[in-house]
Amino acid sequence: MFGSGVQAALPHLGAATAVFARTRGGEELPMHDPRCYPGIAASFVLDATPGRHTQGGTWTAESRGTSPGSGYPRIADILV
After folding, report:
1. Cβ contacts of residue 26 below 8 Å, gap of 6+?
2. Which sign does the torsion angle of CA 56, 23, 41, 43 carry?
3. How far is residue 50's CA from residue 44's CA, in Å, rounded to a whole number?
4. Which of 51, 9, 10 is nearest to 31 (CA)?
5. How far is it, in rounded angstroms, from Cα 79 to Cα 72?
6. Rounded to the nearest 5°, which phi and psi values hold at 45?
7. Cα separation of 28 and 45, whole Å?
8. Whole-angstrom Cα distance, residue 58 to residue 64?
9. Residue 11: CB partners within 8 Å, gap ≥ 6?
10. Over the stretch 11-65, which tens digit does the pLDDT of each residue have?
């Protein structure tokens, strides 16, 4: 149902769900919080398709493979 995007799924989900469909210019919003990593914030502004994971970015390098506060050790700490 969501393969064609949130807007295409709305008729199947009902009018009450429209408030949860967050899109801008027909593109779904990115999932990741850009406040954690400056590089991903730039990616969201500059990429042609910011809600997709098809564009390269620096956030994996910035995060060292994990999100802050996730409870998982950073990859850099494991490999040391």
Report:
1. 5, 7
2. positive
3. 5
4. 51
5. 14
6. -80, -40
7. 14
8. 10
9. none
10. 899 888 888 888 776 777 777 777 777 777 777 777 777 666 666 667 666 666 6
**What token pair was written down for 67?**
């999100």
**Nearest CA-CA partner of 35 in 2, 72, 67, 1:** 67
pTM over 0.70: no
Provide the 10 A C-beta neighbour count for residue 75: 13
| Tokens of residue 62, six digits | 């910035």
Q: State the alpha helices, DSSP H only, in the chain.
A: 6-13, 38-46, 59-63, 75-79
Count the Cβ atoms, other than its own, within 10 Å of residue 50. Answer: 19
